Give the backbone structure.
Amino acid sequence: MMRHAHLPIPPIAEQTMAMPATHRRWTREHVLRLIDESRAWPRYELIDGELLVTPAPGDSHQLAVGELHLLVAPYVEAEGLGLTFFSPSDVELEKDSITQPDLYVRPDAPSAEEEDVEAWSRAKLLLAVEVISPSSARTDRVTKRDFYMEHGVAEYWVVDLDARVVERWTPTGETPHVERETLEWQPLAGSRPLTIELPVLFDRIRDKSARARKARERQ
């Protein structure tokens, strides 16, 4: 909401919109209130006082996130790296910021004896992933990339379903590694790498999206 009026959100197309503050700077409290009121969607995020609004994703986007989770989560569990989450799930890498990566990996939660949940919520992410759409491309490739890299995210993947590539960003790189065939992720030296055959992954997403579209047409 802005001054108690509903934000205009297109009902169908997935879109990320920056809502700059006009009379006030958006705060964590404002955005948490929006999240509580809207529940899962639309997705509200806050970076540098700027509100980002993303309506519910389409089939291809959701299927891509699901397929990536099926690949990443078992690997993270087997290697004892931490926990894998997917959106909607809040990440607060700094005070007065809230992001919701499509998928992310963070170190293990504190033990019951430590109970340092707040510190854990700001732990550096091992991985953040965004699946882009045409309208979210600049936000994912620029705004979120800069934010994640500045706040110690070890690796950031931008998944482009149309181009069938994954752009991999790390804090030490000035340009991304663009992967088209095989993506290998090895967050810890000496650990077994996760290998993802990208043509196989993108074909699977495409085929499931086609099935979903046909199912909708038959309804």
